[in-house]
């Protein structure tokens, strides 16, 4: 079946039925140099970005209207409509102040919610850009790395192990290329690819000369010409399954929503009781009185139900993710922020994560002894000769020159000279180390240009070696197989050894010496790699693959230094203090791994390491026992990583696992937090992980865990604040109705007088909820956050102790407000001399001030509010704003009329502050009791002096 490429692209037959030259001609692509930049831009403009159709981006007005889709808001608008109708029917002379104020407050609340939601959406969108995939292409004759959504039809797509294929492409070259196509075909096994044209139409799984968007390169390399992008790709044909992506809801968000519903039902019951009680015990004079009572009940429900919690929660999580991204830890999902706070084990690679990935060959070990590579050249222990002779031999050819030159040829890295004259490594740092060491040899002919590579047997994590077939054009076009890999693996393929200029059989004694040399280098914390070679017979097939890697001549071993990052040891110590166990999993020699782990404080001296071979001998039960005490694993395969993760999770651990290769993907997916390397990581590992380290640095993982814990702490802070403050409003009205006679809230006819009006309750909700809550979500993290054990995934964010605190603080808030009203009214426990309006204004003000005091206290469950009191400038700004608005509503005459308030004297303001501060002092006393009862659980808190 033919396919028409979208948006004006050329119509071509199925690419797998065409030869490469025909496709290149139809797509106007030069196979040698690729498209020009101008061609690529024109095609991008014509066809659009290489993206699948997704759910349309909602316009801003959609989020604004969503703020009004709430039953309680509907009730408020209904009450406003009835109030306006009553006002119009009665005479309509005075302005309907109550109705106008309620409408204004609802609108302001809606705009605040709209702001929170859109900010959260923009933050998540910004993070999505950080996790976009990229592809290597050839344009204008040079290799470049571009975002995959910029690929266009006709691009030359460079494919390497670990890449995620960015678009559908017809293969031009395929070198031992294997592709995992499970995302399209469901087949779990990788597919071998080639460049041969097919003669007839076949199903997608049989199109061996094609690669498809969204699949993964698991081995080998290749080059393809892009034939389809975006919705014209094979994965685009099933894009309807991806059109509607459900909004991700984290476990924490689910819990908060459940709490909101529970509180909503409880408050509706309380509001109904309050309304019914008032209606029964009050002398209702008309419809207007009934409306005021009903409006009070609705306002109480609106103010008490934390309907803004989900928006604040999403905003705080998104801001936290952005803050992590700025610190080189890119979190892909909101739920991962929660999981980070619970991480109890971090399984980490060694090279590049714990170490600098600055590979330098320091020592060599050959049959004739040890060599030392210095910064200015090569200083061997013994005579070295530099005659330019065939690689395979020569009268007095040095073993060491042979070792370094052979290691350079058996690799894919290159050395490039920059404009300033400096040389930089392009490719794998380990392979680059051979090139640098070979260049340090002060030989007359050190260039590798005379060698032509004609075949490659790629490195895989299972083989732990790679080989290259080269032709030495300056020495009779001799064909050589050169292999480089782990010493223990490579020695198994060797039957001979290089001794001086001779090749001799690899006897047991010589093999034992080679093993001892490896152990000596590993004991010095050097990474070891060995090199071997053999001459190929004239008729030997260079495409025979791994069958060529037999009867090799062992040359020797290099010791590569990769110093630990300076910041890693302190980070590991910090993780241990936080109750987080660190496990090193590496492919290096066990002695090297153990030495590095000792130096970094992961294990104690003499603890040793388990190898992949050891793990293969353990059944699941034995492995479960081993992982309890083993913290270093060496010479492991990716399948071992998966077993280790599963065993740790079975014991209840929350596991973070690092990885960078294709075969690390299963372990990254299985781990609670899969962490892909941003620099050395493959696209496949980045897609599998939930977090990407932009700097490949272990210390960044620990910082991210700290940030995750801090975010969860901040969420608990604003939940504690909002719930206790809203509880104070509910209890104020509830106890006022129950104890109206005692307080003096009765009129001359004996009816109940309410301590707060509906507009006042809505005002409190407006000025004290959103801004302080968001500011608390940005609170600087406590220093003690990394001096306590990890949070268990089963722990609820709002536990029984928090609920007790919410009820107690809410009760104190209500009592303080009602006592203030009683203090001013003439009848009650404390006889006063003020009017109802004045008393109501004072009680209203105390409730606002009490919530602002509560904002300071709620920042910690057990630590004194005086510690780091001024460290959060955003919180103080929110408090200052709320206080300014409250002064305006008390002293500005237009607002006096709108909210039925009157001015307070200076002494009355002092009394209001004193009464409101009861919440602060009660919280301090409660924390003191908690610390005295549980001193072992209390960690001294020292907040930073300034906001981060």
From TrEMBL:
One Pfam short name:
Cation_ATPase
**Record keywords: Iron included?**
no
**Compartments where found:** Cell membrane
Which positions fall inside the Cation-transporting P-type ATPase N-terminal domain?
Answer: 14-88
Q: What is its main location?
A: membrane
Spell out the InterPro entries in the cross-references: ATPase_P-typ_cation-transptr_C (IPR006068), ATPase_P-typ_cation-transptr_N (IPR004014), ATPase_P-typ_cyto_dom_N (IPR023299), ATPase_P-typ_P_site (IPR018303), ATPase_P-typ_TM_dom_sf (IPR023298), ATPase_P-typ_transduc_dom_A_sf (IPR008250), ATPase_P-type_domA (IPR059000), Cation_transp_ATPase_P-type (IPR050510)
Q: Which UniProt keyword terms apply here?
A: ATP-binding, Cell membrane, Membrane, Nucleotide-binding, Translocase, Transmembrane, Transmembrane helix
Q: Which domain of life is it from?
A: Bacteria
Work out whether the entry's keyword set contains ATP-binding. yes
TM helices/strands, residue ranges: 72-89, 95-115, 262-281, 293-322, 726-746, 752-778, 806-825, 837-853, 874-894, 906-923
Per UniProt, what is the membrane topology?
Multi-pass membrane protein
Q: Which PROSITE patterns match?
A: ATPASE_E1_E2
Similarity comment:
Belongs to the cation transport ATPase (P-type) (TC 3.A.3) family. Type IIA subfamily.
> What is the official name of this protein in its record?
Cation-translocating P-type ATPase
Name its species.
Answer: Pseudomonas wuhanensis
């Amino acid at each position: 079946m033919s396919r028409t490429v979208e948006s004006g692209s050329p119509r071509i037959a199925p690419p797998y039925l065409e030869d490469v030259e025909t496709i290149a001609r139809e797509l106007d692509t030069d196979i040698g140099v690729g498209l020009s930049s101008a061609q690529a831009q024109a095609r991008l403009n014509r066809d659009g970005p290489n993206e699948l159709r997704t759910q349309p981006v909602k316009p801003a007005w959609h989020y604004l209207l969503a703020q009004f889709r709430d039953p309680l808001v509907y009730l408020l608008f209904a009450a406003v409509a009835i109030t306006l109708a009553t006002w119009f029917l009665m005479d309509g002379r005075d302005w309907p102040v109550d109705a106008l104020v309620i409408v204004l407050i609802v609108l302001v609340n809606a705009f605040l919610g709209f702001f929170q939601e859109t900010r959260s959406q923009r933050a998540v969108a910004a993070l999505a850009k950080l996790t976009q995939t990229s592809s290597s292409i050839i344009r204008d004759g040079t290799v470049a790395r571009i975002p995959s959504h910029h690929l266009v039809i006709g691009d030359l797509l460079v494919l390497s192990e670990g890449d995620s294929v960015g678009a559908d492409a017809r293969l031009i070259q395929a070198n031992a290329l294997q592709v995992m196509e499970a995302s399209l075909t469901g087949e779990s096994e990788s597919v071998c690819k080639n460049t041969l044209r097919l003669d007839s139409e076949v199903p997608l799984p049989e199109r061996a000369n094609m690669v498809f968007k969204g699949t993964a390169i698991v081995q080998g390399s290749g080059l393809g010409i892009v034939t389809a992008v975006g919705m014209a790709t094979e994965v685009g044909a099933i894009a309807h399954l991806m059109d509607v992506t459900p909004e991700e809801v984290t476990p924490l968000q689910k819990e908060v929503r459940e709490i909101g519903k529970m509180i909503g039902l409880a408050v509706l019951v309380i509001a109904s009781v309050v309304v019914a009680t008032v209606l029964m015990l009050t002398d209702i004079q008309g419809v207007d009185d009934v409306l005021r009572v009903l409006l009070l009940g609705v306002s109480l429900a609106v103010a008490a139900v934390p309907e803004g919690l989900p928006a604040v929660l999403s905003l705080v999580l998104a801001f936290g993710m952005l803050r992590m991204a700025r610190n080189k830890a890119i979190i892909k999902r909101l739920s991962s922020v929660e999981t980070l706070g619970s991480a109890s084990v971090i399984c980490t690679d060694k090279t590049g994560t714990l170490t600098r990935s600055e590979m330098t060959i320091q020592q060599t070990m050959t049959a004739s002894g040890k060599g030392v590579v210095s910064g200015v050249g090569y200083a061997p222990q013994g005579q070295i000769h530099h005659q330019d002779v065939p690689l395979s031999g020569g009268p007095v050819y040095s073993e060491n020159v042979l070792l370094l030159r052979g290691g350079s040829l058996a690799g894919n890295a290159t050395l490039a000279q920059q404009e300033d004259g400096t040389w930089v490594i392009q490719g794998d740092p380990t392979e680059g180390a051979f090139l640098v060491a070979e260049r340090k040899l002060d030989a007359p002919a050190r260039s590798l240009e005379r060698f032509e590579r004609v075949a490659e047997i790629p490195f895989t994590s299972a083989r732990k070696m790679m080989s290259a077939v080269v032709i030495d054009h300056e020495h009779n076009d001799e064909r050589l197989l050169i292999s480089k890999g782990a010493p223990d693996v490579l020695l198994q393929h060797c039957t001979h050894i290089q001794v001086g200029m001779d090749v001799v059989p690899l006897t047991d004694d010589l093999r034992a010496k080679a093993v001892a040399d490896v152990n000596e280098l590993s004991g010095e914390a050097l990474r070891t790699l060995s090199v071997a070679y053999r001459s190929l017979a004239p008729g030997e097939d260079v495409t025979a693959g791994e069958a060529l890697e037999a009867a090799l001549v062992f040359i020797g071993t290099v010791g590569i230094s990769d110093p630990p990052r300076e910041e890693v040891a302190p980070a590991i110590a910090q993780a241990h203090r936080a109750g987080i166990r660190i496990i090193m999993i590496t492919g290096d020699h066990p002695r090297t791994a153990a030495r590095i782990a000792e130096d970094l404080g992961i294990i104690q001296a003499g603890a040793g390491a388990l190898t992949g071979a050891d793990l293969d001998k353990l059944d699941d039960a034995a492995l479960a026992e081993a992982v309890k005490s083993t913290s270093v694993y060496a010479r492991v395969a990716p399948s071992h990583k998966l077993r280790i993760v599963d065993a740790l999770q079975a014991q209840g651990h929350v596991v973070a696992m690092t990885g960078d290769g294709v075969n690390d993907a299963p372990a990254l997916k299985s781990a609670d937090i899969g962490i892909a390397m941003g620099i050395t990581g493959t696209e496949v590992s980045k897609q599998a992980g939930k977090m990407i380290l932009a700097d490949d640095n272990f210390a960044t993982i620990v910082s991210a865990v700290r940030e995750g814990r801090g975010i969860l702490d901040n969420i608990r802070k604003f939940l504690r604040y909002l719930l206790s403050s809203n509880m104070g409003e509910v209890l104020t009205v509830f106890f006022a109705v129950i104890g109206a006679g005692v307080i003096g809230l009765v009129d001359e006819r004996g009816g109940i007088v309410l301590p707060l009006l509906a507009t006042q309750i809505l005002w409190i909700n407006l000025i004290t909820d959103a801004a302080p809550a968001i500011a608390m979500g940005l609170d600087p993290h406590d220093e003690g956050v990394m001096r306590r054990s990890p949070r268990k995934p089963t722990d609820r964010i709002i536990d029984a102790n928090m609920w007790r605190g919410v009820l107690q603080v809410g009760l104190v808030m209500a009592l303080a407000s009602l006592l203030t009203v009683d203090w001013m009214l003439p009848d009650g426990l404390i006889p006063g001399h003020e009017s109802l309006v004045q008393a109501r204004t004072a009680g209203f003000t105390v409730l606002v001030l009490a919530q602002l005091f509560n904002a300071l206290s709620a920042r910690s469950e057990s630590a004194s509010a005086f510690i780091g009191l001024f460290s959060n400038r955003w919180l103080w700004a929110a408090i200052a704003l709320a206080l300014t608005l409250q002064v305006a509503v008390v002293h500005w005459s237009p607002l006096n009329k709108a909210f039925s308030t009157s001015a307070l004297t200076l002494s009355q303001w002092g009394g209001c502050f004193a009464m409101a501060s009861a919440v602060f002092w009660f919280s301090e006393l409660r924390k003191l009791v908690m610390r005295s009862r549980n001193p072992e659980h209390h960690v001294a808190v020292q907040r930073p002096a300034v906001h981060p």
